[in-house]
Amino acid sequence: MKILNGEELVGFVKARQVRVVAEILASGERAPKLVIVRDNDSPVINKYVELKQQYGKDIGVEVVDAKVQTEELKEVVRKYSRDAGVDGIIVQLPLLEPEWTDAVVSLIAPEKDVDGLSGKGEFDSATATAINWLLAGYDIDLVGKKIAVVGYGRLVGKPLVRMWRAAGHDVTVFRRGSNLSELVNFEVVVSATGMAGLIESKMIRPGAVVVDAGTASEDGAMVGDVEEAVRERTDLVAITPRVGGVGPLTVGVLFEGVVRGSKGLIN
Predict the structure, then answer these.
(1) Is there a domain that residue 162 lies in?
(2) Range of the domain at 35
(3) How much is the average pLDDT of 191-214?
(4) Once rounded to an integer, what is the mean pLDDT over residues 159-169?
(5) Which of 118, 31, 33, 25 is nearest to 80 (CA)?
(6) Domains: count for the chain
(7) Do 109 and 196 belong together in one domain?
(8) pLDDT confidence tier of residue 44, bands split at 50, 70 and 90
(9) Burial of 178 (0-12, 13-18, 19+ CB in 10 A)
(10) pLDDT for 267
């Protein structure tokens, strides 16, 4: 069984980004700059921000953590969207007031929307792209496969389904209230709900590929949608680890956009 280790794959991406940023700095240009805008400091959010800060430090990209009050979000996003010294902006979700999400995200300048959340720029969803990179990196071919995507959120499920259907793949969406026992009929299962342990072993057929893109905090630990009993099986083709699957590559995709923006490669 293959372990879909995003931490391993992102090492190759990061090594190339280090070289590109070094070339930018050697040419006398400023360092690329990413701004993370948030109003939430939950343990999960803090962890995500720390990971991005460390990644930026590793490759030479400046990362600004703009933690503000909810009512300040719009103006802060507007400010950084106008700032020529900023190459990428992320609104770290979820917000404390989720109903603010669309209004805030829509204010990100399209050429700086490296998370692909607004849908207005040339960037696809970073997490959806990371899932594609992960499967391709481990030679998982989706052609002719029956694919299930559990969860239809704006961060993962919706853009991933759109991306895969556009590529001609056979994708079925499982939303809240869907009969998850039917997952046993699918060869590829991607879950992104943030509901710990939602996907049980009995729901997964032998020979399946399982991608756990959900994250939640349970007793202070990061957990995913897939219960650990699934990872203990030996009859699967491939599965993501509990930690280090999709997440590391998502960060790599985000910084790819920041570096491209810094080099003037975004229209």
Answers:
(1) yes
(2) 27-113
(3) 95
(4) 96
(5) 33
(6) 2
(7) no
(8) confident
(9) middle
(10) 45
